[in-house]
Amino acid sequence: MKNILCVRWGDKYNDHVEKLKQQVETRCSLDYKFFCLTDKPKYSYDIQLPTTWDHHFDPVRNGFWAYRKCYMFNEDLFPQLDGDEFVYLDQDILIHNSIDSLFLRDTNNPWIVRGWWNDTENCKKNYGKIKSTPLNSSIIRWNRGQLKPVYDHINDHADYIFFTYSTIDNYFNHFWYNLYDEFEAETSMLDDIKKGESTKKLFRGFEQGIAYSWYKGNIFPEDMDLNKVRTDNMICLFNNSYSINAGKTGDEHMYEIDEVKKLWNI
Amino acid sequence: MEYLKYYPELSNNWSRALSSVAKRNTWAAKRVEQSMTSSQLESKLWLSSELYKVQPESFKNAIIVGGWYCHFLTEALINNNNVKFICNYDICKDSQLISYRFNRRFKDEGKYIASSRNIFTMLLEGKQRQKGLIDLVINPSCEHMFHMKRIKDKHFQKTRPMFVLQSTDEEKYDDHINCVYSTDELAEQAGLIDVVYAGEKILSNGMKRFMVIGR
Q1: Which ipTM score applies to this complex?
Q2: What residues form DSSP beta bridges with B167?
Q3: Mutation to test the B interface, candidates A127, A131, A156, A172, most B Cβ within 10 Å
Q4: Residue of chain A with shortest Cα separation from B24
Q5: What is the extent of the structural domain holding A26?
Q6: How many domains does chain A have?
Q7: What is the mean pLDDT of each run of 10 residues along chain A (266 residues)?
């Protein structure tokens, strides 16, 4: 069985899950189950999120704030998840085309969004400053067990990770992806990873055409227009950081964008 | 010693390092420039001279945590403090590669290696462990990372190397994730119970640095 997951906590995105579910129903022709991991289960597709790591989170520091997304990497925590194939989707996305191919691909390694809109040299320049990650966890594809080492690593080093990393994407970039040899994972089968350890050979980045960013562009440097619909891509991302700051930074919320509102009518 | 010796091998390594960064690692050029300011040198010379006062005898096997390109510090430690072997751990791959260019003379002599391992979560380099007991741990930039007590607890439960730690109260940079406001706080963060030196210094760029030495 294939599982399509999203994660929701707090009071933001109250109506996003239903909209995401509708989009998935239209854009996925495969047999799948849809679930939302949430702190406040309400609907039949909701699954209760654990609270195991809550005490590591400091709301003032707001480091590693999206940690709840990482519980799903230990599928055994959720008996409802009975399949072996998983796709995670952020709620603030717009799906333009079929997502079937997210399931129909080589899964020697898990996949994550490689933000092709990033300038790789800038990512390298800022690597030590723990910013400018080329990864984006808005879409993740994995098979059961493949991301358990990530769950274990967070569990074993939680105080260090919550203190050090402002976002999970920067954490993934430092421990589970090789920015300096981006195609290393393509040529390597995952070896057994000892509990609590990490390998930079884990994630593969999705190819160009899977995802672009409404606020940041598509492919650096040739296709970087902002606020532009690109229906030749599979999915448009409305980065979390912007929705959190919507109204503060001058960026509109995705539901307030006229061009996007029209596209919701799927 | 309040200065670094400038000699032909050093000159050769540094000029080649700067030239190769300009050609092959252009994105790092600004950072390399920032690593060579007078404030950076003041800070490393301060570290070297106070360490010498505390222990004039040599150290055999040293860790530098977050050493960046490690040009000034490696030169000071090896030629002023007579440190026999150094491994510089910096998670940035560019730092590892560029630091090798600056320290080519020491690498060739087997006195210097650089690693991009994160030793808050990972083991120390095998090549370093083969060198025997580690007797010196230096972190010249604690403000950039988690508390040093984690390093102490993870790698030094059975031994007591000398720790030399520097940090700052300067919060305006977003990568300063762990500022301190006194030498006491810096020592406490690392779990040092025997502090033999504690001091602070205003560098020429106006930044206040704290330093503690102890076990």
Answers
A1: 0.96
A2: B210
A3: A127
A4: A121
A5: 2-264
A6: 1
A7: 96 85 97 97 97 97 96 98 97 96 96 98 95 96 97 97 97 97 77 86 96 97 96 90 47 68 64
